[in-house]
Every structure is written in C-alpha cells, then in structure tokens.
Automatic annotation (TrEMBL), chain A:
It is found in: Cytoplasm; Nucleus, Nucleolus. It comes from Plasmodium falciparum (isolate 3D7). PANTHER family: EXOSOME COMPLEX COMPONENT RRP42 (PTHR11097:SF8), EXOSOME COMPLEX EXONUCLEASE RIBOSOMAL RNA PROCESSING PROTEIN (PTHR11097). It holds the Pfam family RNase_PH. One of its GO terms (biological process) is nuclear mRNA surveillance. Its main location: cytoplasm. The keyword Protease does not apply. Keywords: Cytoplasm, Exosome. This is Ribosomal RNA-processing protein 42. GO terms for molecular function: mRNA 3'-UTR AU-rich region binding. One of its GO terms (cellular component) is cytoplasmic exosome (RNase complex). Residues 25-154, 193-254 form the Exoribonuclease phosphorolytic domain. Belongs to the RNase PH family. The keyword Phosphoprotein does not apply.
Automatic annotation (TrEMBL), chain B:
It comes from Plasmodium falciparum (isolate 3D7). Its EC number is 3.1.16.1. One of its GO terms (biological process) is poly(A)-dependent snoRNA 3'-end processing. SUPFAM superfamilies: Ribosomal protein S5 domain 2-like. GO terms for molecular function: hydrolase activity; RNA binding. Belongs to the RNase PH family. The keyword Cell inner membrane does not apply. GO terms for cellular component: cytoplasmic exosome (RNase complex); nuclear exosome (RNase complex); nucleolus. This is Exosome complex component MTR3, putative. Keywords: Hydrolase. Gene3D superfamilies: GHMP Kinase, N-terminal domain (3.30.230.70).
C-alpha cells in the first residue's frame, strides 16, 4: 500500500517511477517483414509488451449485400504456453472489439479490395499474437497492425472471361472467369487512414500516457483515442471507470493530437532505420 | 385492358427523401426525413417485471428499438468469482429476423464487449464476494440506437433486481452531419435505422454513444466513430448529448416513481386484507 502511495505522490509531482514525465512514451522496437510466409508482418516490442502481427490475403466470393467490397478480419490471441504475463480471454475479446471498431471498421476503404463485383474480392486476415502483456497493450497492438498493413502488398489480379463450349441450351450462356496474376507488379494496401490507439489514464486529475502495468491498476479512468497520421481524431472509447468528467475528455482529445505526432515520428524513424539496413 | 393501366410517373419525379434533401441544400436549415426536431427523442416505454426463474427483467423500447433484459443473481459461484469480488456475465442475443446485411453474431459480440467493462464498473462488486451476476439481453427489434438502448435497459434491469449500483446509467446516441454545400454542422439526437442508413450515404457523419451517470453527472460510457472529431465539435456534441440524457433521465425517473408507488400500494392492500 505504501508503494502505491509512493507512485501516486510521484505522479502528482509530474514524474514517474522510471524517470519519465507524464507525456513521454517508452522506447519501442519495431521490426517488419519478419514472417516470410505472410503477406505482411510486423513485430513491436517495448519493456513490458511483445506483439507479433501477421496478415494473410485470400480470395473470397463477396456476400450479396456487400457485393463490391472486400473483407477485413481481426483476431488477437494470447497463447498460454508462451506468454509470461497473460491476459484473460474476456479482456482479449474486449480489446479485439475495441481495436476493430476504432482502427479498422470505418477507416479501410473496402471497395478497393474488390477485384470483380459479385465474383472476386480480397479477404484480409489480421492475426495478432501477444507474447507478453503489460501496460499500454492497446497502443502496441495498434502500432503492430499499422506497421503490418503498411508492409502489405496486393498482387495485381486480372479476371479473364471464357465461354464454355459445351453448351446444350442455346439461349443460356454459361460464363466463367479465370484469374491471371500479373507478375512482378503489386499495389500497396490503403494504409493512409489507419489510425493508432493512444490510451490515456487519469489519476487525481493528472493524465498519464503509455502507462506501465502498475500504473494501469492505479488509474481511475482509461480513455482510448484513435488518431491518424495526419493528426485527425477518428474514434474514441472510454474503457474503464465511471467517474470521468466531460471537461477532462475534451482536454484529453486535444492533448492526444500533439502526442500522436511524436509517436508517428518514432514509428517512421524506426521504419527508416529498417530501410537503411536493408 | 387498356383502361386499367396505371400512369407512369413523370421522368423527373423525385422521391420524398430526395425532395427533403434538395430542400435542405437550398435553404440554410436542416429537416429530418421523419419530421422530428433535431433534439427530439423517440417514444419511450418501460416495463419492469419478473420471470418464472426468479430473475428480474426490464422491457425497454425507444421507438421501434426494443430490448428485453433479464438479470439473475447474485448467486454463489465458487468457480468464477474471486474471494473479494463478484463477477458479471453479459450475454447479448438478437432475433435473426431483424437484421439486413449485418452479421448478427459479430454485432452481438461487439455490443457485449463494449458494454461489459461499463457494467462491471457500475455495480458494487465488492458487496457480492464469491457471487456471480448473469445478465441476458435480447434485442427484439433493432431500429437504430441499439447500443445505447441496451445500456439503458441493463441499468433499469439491475435496478429492478435491487443490485447495489453507484448510479443509474442513461445512454443516448448523437450523430453529427456536415452539410456538403454550406459546411455547417448539425447535431441530431436518436436517429432511427432508416435515418442512419440514409444520412450515412448522403452526408459525412460522426456517431457518438454517450452514457451518463444521472446523479453523479459523470461520463461512464463514451464511444465515437467518424471522420472529423476535434475538441470544439466534441464540446458541442457532448453538451448536446448531456441535455438529451438529462431529459431522457427525467422521464425514466417518473416511470420509476410510478412503479414504486404501485408496489407500495399493492403491499398496503395485502396488509389490509390480512388485518
């Protein structure tokens, strides 16, 4: 109990137990293209979290209601045999829903994923494997998804129309399509509008960014904001606690746009390092 | 046979919605397609009751959105609940004849995942050690605003079950629309299903679900998706939604007072009969 009071007192003095200020993020190690069998992959590690994200593209027949749209699925797993710090299954389901609703649902133009309306469309399966879970896991997972989608390339696929020759009925023309992949050409996944999550904890009217695990247990409210690389807030969700004032929400969304610029700069610096090494 | 043919419509005939849309563009104002005001909430109906398995239930309808919630518990549960705190289980189902196009299971799981954190924090779980509380929601009909109606219905069902809570939750959904010509922003309260689909296709729209503790006056649920949030528009939307939640909350308080009065009168009648 006295150690928790010590942490609270240090937060009131604008410093944390590892020496950071309230607005500072910890150093993030980003790797991409780590799985050769996946169409896009990334790995994001900081002190407490270790996340691997893999993306697989497949061709599907679109539904009747969304005949000119592709499909994006998200699944987050935490294997019990590997992870030193585990999360419960209910909390994983909550995080999957929150990240899907904030980052993926309305921010990917699914019509780009369509090859031929009603016949062929891309299905993008995003699998996130959490190897170690600490504080601020939502931020790390959203960064991993962003980097992996940035690494994803679509092959250019062109449908060819063929008419079946064995046709007994004269008026009915059966038509079938075959797909042909154009070699050595691909297009990028539309990743420009995909945001990353920033989770903010409130404790004694102070706002903490990038919480550690101990700080996450101490805070009274957690607010998650999704911000794109242009600094636009596209979604938010209040996650924990019931005692958040309305004025503090407005302060949080204003500060988060500034914090997201530094966070995106960190991500782009890490990616530039990877390009320099390749 | 020729005299029974109906006349064809004129070649530049417009539907009712398109007429309202063009009228909104020409005038500077905004008119909803179902003739409601911008801050008008649909008709509300609440019925509290019990079912035969000793669970407390609440039926809540807001326009054509109808939710039925049943609360069982607190029951002793040594498997899931911990020694110091109880545990809340939430199950959301919707009837399959409702939805067109949307995936039922994914939407139900979305509502469950978004609401379970809020419900777990509103109930005083320290009062129920080694117990579990089961909440089952049935979405009978979905005509827009399903997430907010489910949250309000769960809160009322927990009140009926007399489970100790910090406060009653009142939830409402607000949508913001930008006019493409004048770039002016309009805030609409409590859209129904037809309005949601139509405005999504015509305008650029933000959508916020706001849940407020009625007496504490704090925010307990806040979920928004859209494309143009900033702190100025958020301030307008939140104050707009707060007024809507307060007016809806006062109506709900009236219904609860009437229900309590009926219960007290029926108890007095039983006492008189016994005497």
């Amino acid at each position: 109990m006295s150690s928790l009071n010590y942490i609270e007192d240090s937060i009131n003095c604008n410093i944390r137990i590892d020496g950071r200020t309230l607005l500072t993020y910890r150093s993030i190690e980003i790797n991409k293209n780590i799985l050769v069998s996946g169409d896009g992959s990334s790995s994001v590690i900081n002190e407490e979290n270790n996340v691997i994200c893999g993306i697989k593209l497949s061709l599907i027949t679109p539904d009747v209601d969304t005949y000119d749209e592709g499909n994006v699925n998200l699944q987050i797993d935490c294997p019990a045999s590997v992870a030193a710090n585990r999360i419960k299954k209910d909390h994983l389901q909550t995080m999957t829903t929150i990240i899907y609703n904030l980052c993926i649902k309305n921010n990917i133009n699914k019509k780009i994923l369509c090859i031929l309306p009603g016949k062929f469309a891309w299905s993008v399966d995003i699998n996130v494997m959490v190897l170690n879970a600490g504080g601020g896991l939502l931020d790390i997972i959203s960064i991993a998804i962003y980097v992996a989608l940035k690494d994803t390339f679509f092959p250019i696929v062109k449908p060819k129309k063929e008419i079946e020759e064995e046709n007994t009925f004269h008026e009915i023309s059966n038509k079938d399509y075959q797909l042909e992949i154009v070699e050595n050409e691909h297009v990028n996944f539309p990743y420009e509008n995909i945001p990353i999550c920033i989770s903010i904890g409130e404790i004694n009217n102070k706002y903490i960014y990038d919480m550690s695990k101990v700080e996450e247990e101490l805070v009274q409210n957690i607010f998650v904001v999704a911000i794109t690389s242009k600094g636009k807030c596209v979604a938010f969700h209040k996650l924990y606690g019931i005692s958040m004032e309305i004025s503090s929400i407005l302060n949080i969304t204003e500060n988060s746009s500034k914090i997201s610029h530094t966070l995106f700069d960190k991500i782009h610096q890490a990616l530039d390092k990877i390009h320099a090494n390749m | 046979m020729l005299k029974y043919r109906a006349p064809l419509p004129h070649f530049n005939c417009k539907s009712k919605f398109d007429k309202i849309y063009e009228e909104n563009l020409n005038n500077g104002s905004f008119k909803r397609i179902n003739n409601r005001k911008n801050n008008e909430i649909r008709d509300m109906f609440i019925k509290l009751g019990e079912d035969e398995n000793f669970g407390s239930s609440c039926f809540y309808s807001l326009g054509n959105t109808k939710i039925l919630t049943t609360v069982y518990g607190p029951n002793p549960d040594s498997k899931y609940a911990t020694y110091s705190k109880g545990k809340v289980f939430l199950d959301v189902k919707s009837l399959n004849i409702n939805t067109i196009g949307a995936s039922d299971r994914q939407r139900d799981d979305d509502i469950k995942s978004l609401l379970i954190e809020c419900i777990s924090n509103i109930i005083l779980l320290e009062k129920y050690p080694q117990c579990s509380i089961k909440i089952k929601c049935l979405i009978i009909q979905d005509d827009g605003g399903c997430l907010s109606a489910t949250l309000t219905c769960i809160s009322l069902a927990l009140i009926k079950a007399q489970i100790q809570m910090k406060d009653i939750i009142i939830s409402i959904n607000i949508n913001s629309i930008i006019c493409p010509v004048t770039k002016k922003m309009y805030h609409l309260v409590d859209l129904d299903g037809m309005e949601e689909k139509y405005y999504q296709s015509k305008y650029e729209m933000n959508s916020i679900t706001l849940g407020i503790c009625l007496n504490l006056k704090t925010v307990c649920f806040y979920h928004g998706t859209g494309s143009f949030f900033n702190s100025k528009t958020l301030a307008e939307i939140t104050s707009y939604g707060e007024c809507a939640c307060k007016s809806l909350g006062s109506e709900i308080k009236k219904v609860l007072k009437q229900y309590t009065k009926k219960r007290i009168d029926s108890i007095y009648q039983k006492v008189n009969v016994l005497e």
